[in-house]
């Protein structure tokens, strides 16, 4: 997520702000897994198709969604099957899903019905926040064993309702539908299932890399943008189309739609980049052309600096979100109020959200517990983008603008480390510390050890943890390995205390 818009008259920088190791239980089982891997290949760049075979035990979602849109409400009728392998060292007695649309900050209404495990009906527990759905298993799931959890669901989105960042909404004809299905939570050995339901600010979702096959049936006139690649389109002959998506190795599936949308596409390093926007808004087409060039540059710069973006597509979607922008796997949104080629914040947000494809989407983290891991790195990445585009002086100016914003905060007498959970920071402290002080940590490492060393640290970290979830100690370990030097004191001073595993 990009910080809410702040007007500071200093230009954009002033924002400151192989082969799968499958254990065939039966011949049919192996064949099923092999076929589904082939189905995902079109969503990967050719050099990364083999990545599909590196996570044979990752969850597999098969989702059907039907969109029905009236002037006052949109409804999503869905069903899904999730095949889940227990990768924990002990048996599991339940599998937990998160119903994000029911968060107060999302403002949707989501109901789940007809839950079954391996074909046997079960009655799940829904917590008082209506966001934690615990599916008790008829029998404990042994380590390495797999269960198929089926469920039906229905989501209502009231037109005009805009909570927090309006990230889940139906506004001005735009449907913003991230997490519009029951999302598996994360099972952390020793801690159990993650079920934080408090979302005061920042990003709400914590999830793990999975394989998605999603079929979306929608009125013919709706233009869709989503995570992954559309691999097939069928005409149902009743005024609706079914869009078939493959979204492998992604930790979420996000969907956006509007009758007003048009698209503009380009290519960078083999990645098809598509901007989806409303052409009738002022400056929209010129902004899309400029935004495409910025996104192409971001992909080029971050590929070279951090490691390769492996997916065939990256989408940028104009929505009315109240945040500057929000990141999702394979897609990010930019708010329509800055969708203008003359708006400096437009370029900042594009670079920041594009960087989240590396920091959050590919290298995952618990966004509620360790928001600095993706947000501070995304901010620092903007400075890296600026240096490539505009030179060293512009890079220094970008860092200075972060410092000015951070200093303005500490003038109140407050300060803190950057490594606290979202809930530990009051609103202004969150943005001042995680978004402004945070990037200064990586810049300080660069001043101390050199640009090449920091590039090596980030490449090592990315290579070691892409498609996985990283914790602070993982970043410390990767950085120390790349540098050949102890960084405990650096992390203690800037990030604060964290468990060293
Ligand atoms: Zn962000």
Question: Layout of helices and strands, plus pairs?
Answer:
Elements: H1 27-40, E1 60-69, E2 73-85, E3 92-98, E4 109-117, E5 120-121, E6 125-126, E7 132-141, E8 146-158, E9 169-171, E10 174-178, E11 183-184, E12 187-188, E13 192-193, E14 210-219, E15 223-226, E16 229-235, E17 240-250, E18 254-258, E19 262-268, E20 271-277, H2 284-306, E21 313-319, E22 325-328, E23 331-335, H3 344-355, H4 371-390, H5 392-410, H6 427-449, H7 451-465, H8 472-483, H9 488-494
Parallel strand pairs: 1-14, 20-21, 21-23
Antiparallel strand pairs: 1-2, 2-8, 3-7, 3-11, 4-5, 4-8, 6-7, 9-10, 10-18, 12-13, 14-17, 15-18, 16-17, 19-20, 22-23
The chain binds zinc ion (ZN).
Zinc ion (ZN) binds next to helix 4.
Task: Spell out the key features of this protein.
globular, binds zinc ion, alpha+beta, five-stranded mixed beta sheet, Immunoglobulin-like, 3 domains, 501 residues, 23 strands
Description:
The chain has 501 residues and is α+β, with helices and mostly antiparallel strands. The protein has helices at 27-40, 284-306, 344-355, 371-390, 392-410, 427-449, 451-465, 472-483, 488-494; strands at 60-69, 73-85, 92-98, 109-117, 120-121, 125-126, 132-141, 146-158, 169-171, 174-178, 183-184, 187-188, 192-193, 210-219, 223-226, 229-235, 240-250, 254-258, 262-268, 271-277, 313-319, 325-328, 331-335. It has three domains: 12-17 and 262-354, Neutral Protease, domain 2; 59-207, Immunoglobulin-like; 371-494, Neutral Protease, domain 2. It has nine helices and 23 strands. Helix 2 (284-306) packs across helix 4, helix 4 packs antiparallel against helix 5 and helix 5 packs across helix 6. Residues 6-31 have low confidence and may be disordered. Zinc ion is lined by residues 1-2, 327, 352, 356, 375, 378.
């Amino acid at each position: 997520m990009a910080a809410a818009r702040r007007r500071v008259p200093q230009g954009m920088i002033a924002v400151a702000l192989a082969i799968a190791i499958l254990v065939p239980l039966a011949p049919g089982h192996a064949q099923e897994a092999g076929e589904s891997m082939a189905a995902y290949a079109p969503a990967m760049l050719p050099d990364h198709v083999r990545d599909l075979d590196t996570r044979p035990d990752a969850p597999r979602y098969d989702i059907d969604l039907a969109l029905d849109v009236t002037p006052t409400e949109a409804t999503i009728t869905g069903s899904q099957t999730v095949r889940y392998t227990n990768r924990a060292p002990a048996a599991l007695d339940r599998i937990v899903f998160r119903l994000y649309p029911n968060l107060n900050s999302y403002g949707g209404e989501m109901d789940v019905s007809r839950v079954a495990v391996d074909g046997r009906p079960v009655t799940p527990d829904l917590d008082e926040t209506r966001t934690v759905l615990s599916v008790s298993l008829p029998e404990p799931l042994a380590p390495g064993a797999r269960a198929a959890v089926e469920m039906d669901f229905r989501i209502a989105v009231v037109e005009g309702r805009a909570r927090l960042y309006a990230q889940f909404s139906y506004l001005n004809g735009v449907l913003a539908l991230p997490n519009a299905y029951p999302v598996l939570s994360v099972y952390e050995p020793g801690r159990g299932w993650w079920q934080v339901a408090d979302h005061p600010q920042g990003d709400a979702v914590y999830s793990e890399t999975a394989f998605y096959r999603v079929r979306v049936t929608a009125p013919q006139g709706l233009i869709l943008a989503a995570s992954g690649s559309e691999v097939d389109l069928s005409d149902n002959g009743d005024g609706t189309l079914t869009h078939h998506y493959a979204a492998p190795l992604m930790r979420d599936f996000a969907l956006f739609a509007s009758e007003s949308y048009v698209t503009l596409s380009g290519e960078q390093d083999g990645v098809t980049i598509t901007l989806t926007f409303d052409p009738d808004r002022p400056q929209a087409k010129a902004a899309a052309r400029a935004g495409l060039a910025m996104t192409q540059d971001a992909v080029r710069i971050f590929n070279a600096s951090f490691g390769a973006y492996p997916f065939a597509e990256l989408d940028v979607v104009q929505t009315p979100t109240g945040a500057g922008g929000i990141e999702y796997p394979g897609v990010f949104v930019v708010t329509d109020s800055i969708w203008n080629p003359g708006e400096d914040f437009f370029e900042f947000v594009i670079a920041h959200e594009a960087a989240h494809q590396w920091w959050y989407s590919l290298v995952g983290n618990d966004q509620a517990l360790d928001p600095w891991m993706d947000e501070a790195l995304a901010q620092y990445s903007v400075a890296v983008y600026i240096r490539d585009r505009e030179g060293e002086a512009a890079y220094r100016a970008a860092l200075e603008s972060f410092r000015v914003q951070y200093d303005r905060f500490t003038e109140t007498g407050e300060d803190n480390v950057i490594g606290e959970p979202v809930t530990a920071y009051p609103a202004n402290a969150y943005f001042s510390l995680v978004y402004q002080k945070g990037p200064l940590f990586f810049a300080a490492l660069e001043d101390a050890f050199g640009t090449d060393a920091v590039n090596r640290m980030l490449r090592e970290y990315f290579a070691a943890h892409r498609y996985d979830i990283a914790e602070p100690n993982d970043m410390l370990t990767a950085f120390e390995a790349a540098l050949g030097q102890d960084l405990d004191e650096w992390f203690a001073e800037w990030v604060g205390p964290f468990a060293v595993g």
